[in-house]
Amino acid sequence: MAPLTIMVDSPDDVPAADRTDRHGYARRVDRAQLSEPLPGLRVQPLSGPGSGSLHAVVNYAEINVGRAGPDTHIHEFDQYFLVLDGELTVEVALEKHVVSPRELVVVPAGVPHRQYNTGAVTEKHLSVSALAPEAGKPWDRGVDFTANGDDTTGSQSVFKPA
């Protein structure tokens, strides 16, 4: 098994094949930097391809009481929500999850979802998208997702037993 970490004492000890010209950084949430793409939803980008992170985008978000993110939609990338404060209700496919601080929601690529705040205080969370969404392409694709009324149990395979 390959090692996950290369332990070094200085930058010069990093093998040439593993070096990068990118730098790490710390970013503070700055209320002056929050944009409001939807009423009651405020977002600040913290990391992404424009700031040196090639494989993920990290956004800080706040949702006011009674407000929501985009209606039901899908992505071509995985998305994670880590709730920091308040409660976030996330509908993943047809399952509803009320998520509290220090809980993580995992939404794989292609899974319909939406998120909103029915709690008593402004909800705050980190949203991580990986791989980073492709520049110039829409992030969200809206979908209508409703139950079809069929109640089915057992194997759902399209293959018929022989």
Strand fraction equals 35-45%
Outline the low-pLDDT stretches: 155-162
User: Termini, distance in Å?
Assistant: 40 Å
Global structural class: mainly beta
Q: Please, how many helices?
A: 0
Tell me what the CATH architecture of the domain at 28-136 is: Sandwich
Major sheet: 6 strands, antiparallel
* Largest beta sheet: strand ordering: 1-2-3-10-5-8
Rg over CA atoms, rounded to whole Å, is: 20 Å
Gross morphology: globular
CATH superfamily of the domain at 28-136: Jelly Rolls
**What is the average of the pLDDT values?**
85
CATH topology name of the domain at 28-136? Jelly Rolls
Number of strands: 11
Following the backbone from N to C, one meets helices and strands in this order, namely: EEEEEEEEEEE
CATH class division of the domain at 28-136: Mainly Beta
Q: Percent range for helical residues?
A: under 10%
